[in-house]
Amino acid sequence: MRYAGKVALITGAGRGIGRATASRLASEGAALAILDRDGPAAEEAAEEVQRSGARAIALAADITDQAAIAAAIEATLAAFARIDVLVNNAARALCGNLEQTGPDDWRNELDGTLTGAFLVTRAVLAPMLREGRGTIVNIGSVNGLLALGNPGYSAAKAGLLSFTRSLATEYGPRGIRVNMVSPGTVQTESPSWQKRLARDPQVFEKLARWYPVGRVGRPDDIAAAVAFVAADEAAFVNGANLVVDGGLTAGLAPMIEELTLEVR
Predict the structure, then answer these.
(1) pLDDT at 92
(2) 24 is a domain residue
């Protein structure tokens, strides 16, 4: 019960990693503010948390809309009086390569991933500073660390890493820790993965060979990492990027096989 008495606000929590994180923190005692631009998905996730015995509210808001964000923060404070944890999970990945990416796509991906996290963070900092403490976890991606397609999304995630370090440096002395969790491939029902699955139903099985652990990630894998870095036991972890990718960025296993002519 590391989160007993604490309140967590999670963006993009209607499905996937965000929803799994909401369930994980609720299982450890947190009250949840579940924010998603898909209102019915947020309601469904909140009801799931409530059935587990935890408190939760659903917030329908687009993280690029400052007025909607302000209303969501106000509703969270009205319900729970405080915000202890913010998880910036919402993101947009629209285009697979640069040729497909037009100026509007570029803006949408950066706004829905990086600028949105900036706007939500600015809104949450004020109540955290009043309490003199808080934790922010930004959900990054291995796309922000090496070239894996989706140039707009990847640039936004790389920018989010820099933003994480800036916040950690500026607000650490004021009691607010800021860290990033960067997943590898995670099997979710996101629109971008649904498009890939429509083209190739075996895409996750094919990607698994690139991962030393032999599989792609699951939302619960990422939720567990968030639950650690946001907890009080990680009090000396600030400005870090915890890469949760099954060893993908540690080395290119299929390339090693080609070089050594050995098959695992």
Answers:
(1) 93
(2) yes
* Token pair of 63 as six digits: 């993280």
Catalytic residue among 3, 153, 171, 195: 153
Q: Residue 194: what pLDDT?
A: 78
Contact predicate 171/165, CB 8 Å: no
What is the total count of domains within the chain? 1
Per-residue pLDDT, 264 = 58
Q: Does a structural domain hold residue 53?
A: yes
Q: Which of left, alpha, beta for 12 (phi over 0: left; psi -120 to 50: alpha)? A: left
User: Residue 95 corresponds to which tokens in the numbers above?
Assistant: 């285009």
Q: Which residue in the list 6, 157, 171, 211 is annotated as catalytic? A: 157
Asked if the structure places residue 44 within a domain, the reply is yes
Residues of the chain with pLDDT under 70: 262-264
DSSP one-letter code for 263: -
Residue type, 98: L
- At 190 the pLDDT is 75
Structural domain harbouring 55: 7-189+216-250
CATH of the domain at 56: 3.40.50.720
Q: Would residue 259 count as lying in a domain?
A: no
The verdict on whether 195 is a catalytic residue reads: no
- Angle formed by the axes of helices 116-131 and 151-171, to 10°? 20
Catalytic residue flag (residue 157): yes
**What pLDDT, on the 0 to 100 scale, is given for residue 50?**
97
